[in-house]
Amino acid sequence: MVYELGWNWNELELLAQGSLAGHLLECGCQLTGGYYMHPGDKHRNLAFSDLLDLSLPFAEIWFDGKACVMKAEGSGGVLNFSTCAQQLLYEVGDPSAYVTPDVVIDFRDVSFKPISSSKVLCLGAKAAAKPLPEKLLQLVPKDCGWKGWGEISYGGHQCVKRAKAAEFLVRSWMEEILPGVSFRIVSYIIGFDSLKVTSIDNIASAMETAEDIRLRMDGLFQEKEHAVQFTKEFTALYTNGPAGGGGISTGHKKDIVLEKQLVEREHIFWHTRGNHSKLVGSELQQKIPEADKKTSVLPVPLLPQLLQENVNVSCIYGSSPEFELSPAPHGLKVPLYNVAHSRTGDKGNSLNFSLIPHFPPDIERLKLVITPQWVKGVLSVLLNPSSFLDSNATAERDKYLDEHVKVEIYEVRGIHSLNVVVRNILDGGVNCSRRIDRHGKTISDLILCQQVVLPP
């Protein structure tokens, strides 16, 4: 943008708007309906077929910093306020200071104005109070040990209890050979508690009704031999474990974690260059395939040049489905699904999740309910190392929660939303996490499952 539009590197407000567009485009089709459709939610209940022909998003940027994100006319998916709001807060910490190498951006007053079903105007990004990062981020690979894992399925009567018995045996066998390593193992029962955050009001009833589950145990060890030993002990469930276990799979691998370091800006050297196409007028039009001419869909690489040369392009705009927006009920216990939508992102050992109310004024009531204490209470079970906890394990979990897990809640005024950041909750981060959902992507919907009572 700096090269094409003649910006200067010290025009920080322009860089902020340009970086906003880049941030929205970063995850491709997540902006145009991918990772958004949700059956049962009237605001997000797209037809399955709508996901077959998603358009990659693209952006128009003007010399004055105005930005529009767009999708191809006639394509599937959806591009609207909600998809833009989810992507704005995706993998963001403090929205008043989103750090990029070029400029630190303040997202708090960003707003989105749909112009059509395929075009949204993006406004309000500005440079933060301290607009230039003093240092730049460097990721350094570091050996973090060896991972060993195993899975086995159980079905039918009391399958959950048999899975718990199998877990108990593997942990005990490992302790006999390698005393003290059990704490390095995390266990899940897929189909019962594999995501940990799921709220189960009647655990006994859930255990009785489960008919098809799979036990997964995942350990991170200092020595390769320990990881190999774990796979051997797990395989022993075929002959020495409870009845009816099948479909065993095991494996081990070396794990590398990416540690963050900060580097002084003056130690980084970079340059850029560009080649400018000389195609003009009729030559440019000949580059557009016949099918695209008929449907008014522009090949993305040619769009900036068409705009620059004032080639007349007509678009057919559609309309987005409208919903009658009304406040969420008060004084009643309702799932957060009824109030807001959300997306989760990860940064190292921290996660963030957005809460974007369907009815924007509901943000004031949400702020009274979504507190750091509430968030810690919901997410504390992520720290459970096992599907059956003794008092010592529970005490250790609560101690870690108090000492290490930090919750930050930010209001994003322009889109009437909350961004919640939770530090030290992802079991060390994606590269070394022992969890099934290493990124924490499922947590957004598990948060939305929680029952809340909104005040008047």
From TrEMBL:
Residue ranges constituting the AtuA-like ferredoxin-fold domain according to the UniProt record: 334-452
| Taxonomic superkingdom | Eukaryota
Pinpoint the Acyclic terpene utilisation N-terminal domain residues. Answer: 1-268
The record's InterPro entries line, in alphabetical order, gives: AtuA-like_ferredoxin_dom, AtuA_N
The name under which this protein is listed is: Uncharacterized protein
